[in-house]
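Worked Example 4.2. Consider the chain below.
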Amino acid sequence: MSAISAVVAVPVFGFLGPIGMPEMLVLMGLGVLLFGKRLPEVGRSIGKGIVEFKKGLKGVEDDIDEASTRSDRTRAVDERVQAEAPKFEIPSEPRKT
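Applying the procedure from the previous section yields the following structure tokens:
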């Protein structure tokens, strides 16, 4: 086993394991201690940030859909077969019968 594969195989925070209910309670307690009175304000600002992020993603999705629809329409117009009627030429000399 090479040194690079040994480093890749071991996760950085592998010793932590999954986060359970006691760990979540400790994290919430630390949040209350750190932010105190500002906790509702912090939550509100995080919520606004998430809403703005979703609006931005929706705008990008709409732009992509519009561009793909526009390209599909132009492709359909380009692929149409133009009907050509036979050209009528006036004879220069009268026919002899």
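The chain has a mean pLDDT of 77. The chain has three helices and no strands. Compare this with Example 4.1 before moving on.
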